[in-house]
Amino acid sequence: MKQIKELTRAEEQIMQVLWQLERAFVKEVIDELPSPKPAYNTVSTFIRILETKGVIGHKSFGKSHQYYPLISKEEYQNFSADKLLNGYFDNSVERMFSFFV
User: Which of 16, 35, 61, 71 could form a disulfide with 75 if both were Cys (CB 3.0 to 4.6 A apart)?
Assistant: First the structure.
């Protein structure tokens, strides 16, 4: 399994768009985000951070870049569930379910 790093809420929101579109330029990501729309530079910065974390890659088209996920939504969901289970419930599914019931 790939080493996955935890994402912030804003990073997850951008990943949701990339998982949905599969490939996108920054402008296309912004178009899919809810209002109020973040600035182009803000989204571009988050995308560079996501690249640094190794969860997205890009293909260059001159000065433009088209971005795509390097991890699947399912991989990140599994990572998040494992982190929740291990971090808060001592790796006990029973404790987790009893918490939510």
Answer: 71
Same domain, 78 and 62: no
Structure tokens at 18: 């990339």
Structure tokens at 56: 């997205």
Q: Are residues 61 and 15 in the same domain?
A: yes
Q: For helices 40-52 and 9-21, what crossing angle results, to 10°?
A: 90
C-alpha to C-alpha distance for 83 and 14, rounded to whole angstroms? 20
DSSP category for residue 53: T
Number of domains making up the chain? 2
Contact in structure between 46 and 53 (CB atoms under 8 Å): no
pLDDT tens, position by position, 10-20:
999 999 999 99
